[in-house]
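haha ok so turns out i had the wrong file open the whole time. this is the CORRECT one, sorry everyone. sequence first:
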Amino acid sequence: MKKFLLPLALLLAFTACQKDEEDLTEHPRYVYTLDNVFSTADQVDQALTSCYSAIRTLYLSGDDWMGWAFTGSSGTDMYDVPYDRNMFTFNDYTIVNPTHTVFATIFRRFYELAAAANMVLYSADLPQIQWGSEDKKAYCLAQARFFRAWAFRCLGELYGGVPIVDRVHTAATFDFRRDSREAVYLFAIKDLETALEDLPAAPEEVGRVSRGAALHCLSELYLALGTEYVDLGRAEDGSAAFEKSIYYADQVIDHSVHHLMTERFGKRSKEGPVYYYAKDKASQTPEHTYASAGVDMPGNVFWDMFQDDNINYGDGNFENLYVIQIDYTAHKTNDKDGSNFRGSVMRDPREFGPRLHVAASSYIDGDMEDRGGRCVTFVMPTMYTRDLIWQGEWADDMRNSETCFRRTFLGNIPGTKYYGKPIPWSVLYREGGNLDSIQAGECDAFPVSCKISTDRFVGIEDGQRREYLFRDKAVIRLAETILVRAEAKLRSGNASGAADDINILRDRARCGHRVSAAEMDIDLILDERARELMYEETRWTTLMRLGGTKAKERIMKYAYWDLPRKTITKDFNLWPIPQSFIDANKDAVIEQNPGW
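then structure:
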């Protein structure tokens, strides 16, 4: 099946008038306006690709502040920056303020997504557009509404009440006013409920929006709305919203074409990863594999879900609800000068992988698959993410297995004492040294998730380095829908039902410990989200959505560095409205969020 790729830019600018060649009087030959810039249904559909492109820009790891803070969740309870990346820190609240570039960039990009969707919604109804069938038009409109809802869902979760922009603006506007957070959520909900029946269960074109993705977003939106109602003292409205959240989650979990993957599948379903500890190609023989050194890494279903050609519904992965498409052939075609990495690759090995060659330079070097590839570490997992959530009864979890979260690294420098043998963590962490040395070791060395690396890098024969992944990326997975439903049940007072949902994931992970109703609280759900959605979840949207002081509590408790503990002097449960937007909106007052 041909993949749905996104090479086309939205036609937002209008062509200038041309002078008449016969005299000095201007006689515009081509004047493009909102009403004539599109002439065919295919052009409108091409404009829709700008929405898909915007999602790619937002959710693929970008080599910039936005990618590390938003997609990489840096500064949360789960991730931080290493010791030598403090210029990119997102947890020093003397500089993390309304003027910070991350807040402005994310704010702008979600509004760009909404603007692109508004353009499609407007142009689809132009009289000259001949759709051929009402179904084709309805699907186009449904996709645009989905993306506009996505934009305002995330804006509401992160920033609270923001201006709702539901039309194309043809002139500069400086008098936007904030709507309430409730209104933002309800606007997104209306878009999705309007679109729902026109979205297919399994789209013909890979990468297009499905009904399951919309159902998930509705469940999350009603959960967020219910939480907001409770914070406003409207408990009855909150309960009704939580019931709607559970209802929509039920529709995708129990009554759709999607289901949790519990058995092995895909092209590598009879095998597991294969790593060599020898660096030179000639020595990469069966005698130089991790398996030959006694490191057992049998394949499992969780590992299967993150392998090449195993990501889409058509690949047999019925768990993923929305998948960003990445194609190596298209990348080579469109990026011949190497300047168009954003939106065409996953930079995860480079950005999120450990620098073992720095942590233990005497025993391991190079950029081979076994150490994660060519890693430069802009974001690292906190001790909470790499160790605390796996301690005790959680240790036998499949997601913590050597196959999925590798903790064993063999020395690869011949003649050294750890050649072909596990390098102890006491060596990697430089135990026995001073505090700076230990912290440097902890920043440089940490486990490698199968989600951010691979044992089979694509394009090596073409000169690609082992720092990029050319595989599709799931942005919404049914496992998260189950976690959303668990939270909605817990907030509805059904702790037993919430525990049942958590145990669905525990059972898939083949973990002996099943949680009980007595254990259930928001922190347990956040811990389970970390185990299940590590390197997938945009943690900031989750923490801000929770309201109260939960975000601050988690950051203060689990942050790797002491900076937030020293510099957070306020309670906050929203990101600040960017000061640049407040200043530019000169004809109306935009109030800043509390604490900022």
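The radius of gyration is 25 Å.
again sry for the mixup
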